[in-house]
Amino acid sequence: MNKQTLEELKDKLEKEKAALEGQLKTFADKDPNLKGDWDSKFPKFNGEFGGAALESAADEVEEYGTRLPVEHSMELKLRDINIALEKIGTKDYGKCEDCGKDIDEKRLMVNPAARLCMKCQK
Ligand SMILES: [Zn+2]
Prior knowledge:
mainly alpha
């Protein structure tokens, strides 16, 4: 892989990372103790047990439930991007983690955080 392609892929990864972190920030707190882990902000109950308060608390819990899978998939994507960024300065970047062959550059252009080649992904 030539240097220019590598720079381009690194740039893509950094942009994608910034975008993902920006999105995660809107509904999650970055865990200060665990690198790369994000916690959803659990809705705060206001402690009042009136009918209206309970109803709105139930809505918030429901919202939390639908948000979790989204957060999880974004977290996984971010993790792959971080792994790729760590590898990009080394010979390991662009190599399939399964068979060790070079991952097709066209595939990396679409998904610079790809960890497996097309064949192994199947
Ligand atoms: Zn492979």
